Amino acid sequence: MNARYKQTEIGYIPEDWLIVELGKLSEFITSGSRGWARYYSDHGSLFIQSQNVRDGWLDLKESQFVTPPQGSEGSRTRVKHSDILITITGNSVGNIALVERELGEAYISQHVGLVRLREPSSGRYICRFLSPGSPGNGQIFASQSGQSKPGLNLINLKELQIALPALHEQCAIASALSDVDALLAKLDALIAKKRDLKQAAMQQLLTGQTRLPGCSSTWESKQLGGVAEITMGQSPSSSNYNSKGLGLPLVQGNADISNRETIRRIFTTEITKLGRLGDILMSVRAPVGEISRAAFDVCLGRGVCAIHYPNDFMYHYLIFLEPTWGRLSKGSTFDSVNSTDVRALTVTLPKDVGEQTAIATILSDMDAEITALEARRDKTRDLKQGMMQELLTGRIRLV
After folding, report:
1. What CATH number is attached to the domain comprising 187?
2. Residue range 377-395, pLDDT digits in tens
3. How far is CA 93 from CA 24, 96, 273, in A?
4. Conformation bin of residue 201: beta by default, left when phi > 0, alpha when psi is -120 to 50
5. pLDDT, tens digit, for every residue of 149-176?
6. What is the pLDDT of residues 347-368, one digit of tens each?
7. 3-state secondary structure of 110
8. 223-270 confidence digits (pLDDT tens)
């Protein structure tokens, strides 16, 4: 290791960085108490609970309100600008957020820890250093070892070790990571917008409400079994299952599907029913009606059926119909539909195959655009993870 670095309790850091306990950087660290339910109200002051504390930010879209108590409980747990909030109990232990705007009068629940720093300018950096996926976050999980329920206490919070560069470098690191977060937020918003546009396009194009230029053929209602080839699944014997890639991948349900495409998880040498590359796959057991596509030849288990249609119109149309399957689901143990139900499904489509293909092309292009944006977002998330590891350990210095 380069001589400019030193070994510490939390790993190698630059020689000019300090290791300081969070408690020594804070004016005080506290949490809410039990009994706030009696102060719940339809209006009044914000009441911040663990579900409001996300990875680096506060989600206040669904907020509880309280009429706060007077006295020490109210003043001790009141949130101020630049406070750090950390979830200390429940499944989201270790989520952390910085209060970066004035919230008016706001208070914390018993599941949230509040850290008020002596130097508020360090808040953005400390929040990054302890956030999920960061080098410092591992301390939070180490503090819970041996406990029957996940959780932190105030002593745990005070003893958290912070690798601390000079203030100007703290600000530079926090700003760099914030820039990536801003990009991620823009990509998430763009993806959501594109999905909404796709949904609106499906509503218009797959019902004939909007017709494409040059398309004027009539639409007709048919039973799915009358226009498509349907193969119901049949599970092979489990004695023929393997993980060595022998035979074909077995598709039994959602566990074998990711992003509407088949994945290779379990293989079988007994091919009971064949699903071909490109076939539409539909789940026939709970949740019924979910649509995917065979990315390669597969063996169909009894939880799915394969639908073969000459173009992509039916793939998009059946995705559009996914919500309608609830009324056909039946069975006391598992919701399910059978071959008769699937074949009797009414589908409405244009007689002109050219119009079917044109509609499918538009929707497939929209899917491709969304997929490309999702890939860019995932790559950006990976970039952020790498940046956190490099910047928050000082392996890369920002001058």
Report:
1. 1.10.287.1120
2. 999 999 999 999 999 999 9
3. 22, 9, 46
4. alpha
5. 778 899 999 999 999 999 999 999 999 9
6. 999 999 999 999 999 999 999 9
7. coil
8. 999 999 999 999 999 999 999 999 999 999 999 999 999 999 999 999
The pLDDT score that the predictor gives to residue 287 is: 87
Indicate the average pLDDT of the chain: 92
**Is the domain of 296 the same as that of 389?**
no
Instruction: Give me the number of domains the chain comprises.
Output: 3
The angle subtended at Cα 37 by Cα 33 and Cα 43, nearest 5°, is 115
Q: What is the DSSP letter of 50?
A: G
State both tokens at 132.
């999920």
Burial class for 322, CB neighbours closer than 10 Å (0-12, 13-18, 19+): middle
Burial class (CB in 10 A: 0-12, 13-18, 19+), 157: buried
Following DSSP, what letter does each residue of 215-266 receive, concatenated?
----EEEEEHHHHSEEEE--PPPGGGEESS--SEEEE-SGGGEETTEE----
Instruction: Give the predicted TM-score (pTM) of the model.
Output: 0.84
Q: Is the pLDDT of residue 220 over 60?
A: yes
Domain termination site, one of 164, 197, 228: 164
- Please tell me what DSSP assigns to residue 291: E
Side chain identity at residue 70, one-letter code: Q
Tell me which H or E stretch contains 66.
strand 64-66
User: Are 1 and 12 spatial neighbours (Cβ–Cβ below 8 Å)?
Assistant: yes
User: Do both 198 and 232 map to the same domain?
Assistant: no
Q: Do 56 and 83 have their domain in common?
A: yes
